[in-house]
Amino acid sequence: MEAGGGVLTAERSPARSNLHVAFTEEGKVKERREKFLTAKYGSHQMSLIRKRLAVEMWLFEELSKLYESKNESGNSREVEVDIDELLDMDSDEHRKSYLQGLLVDAKKPPHDVKKFINDLLEKAKTL
C-alpha cells in the first residue's frame, strides 16, 4: 500500500484478481431444512431402556392373550396397566389386589390370571 496526499491506495495481488462473489436474486426464499435433535444415551441407559421395553412388550402380549375373545360390540376390551404406578405402590399385596381389580373380566381362567399377575410382579422388580 502506498500513501499519497492522505489517500490510501491498494494494489490487488495477481493471485486474487480472479476472485469474486456472485449473488443471484430469484425472488424466492429457500425453505430451511427442518432440523431434528437425536438423543444419544450411554450403554447403561440403553440397557435400562431395552429392559423396560422388553417388559412392556411382554405385558402387551400377555394382556392380549388374557382378553383374546371379543366383547358384544366386536371389539376387544383394552386394559391399561401403568408399570410406574404399579412400582409406586407400597406392597406386593397392594399391587396384586390392584391388578386383580383391573383384570376381573379377563376371558382366561383365574389360575392364568394369577400366574400373569405373579409373572408381572417378578418382571416389574427387575426395573
TrEMBL record:
Native source species: Trichomalopsis sarcophagae
Single GO term (MF): protein serine/threonine phosphatase inhibitor activity
Domain of life: Eukaryota
SUPFAM superfamilies: Myosin phosphatase inhibitor 17kDa protein, CPI-17
Record protein name field: Protein phosphatase 1 regulatory subunit 14B
Keyword line: Phosphoprotein, Protein phosphatase inhibitor
GO cellular component, one term: cytoplasm
Gene3D superfamilies: CPI-17
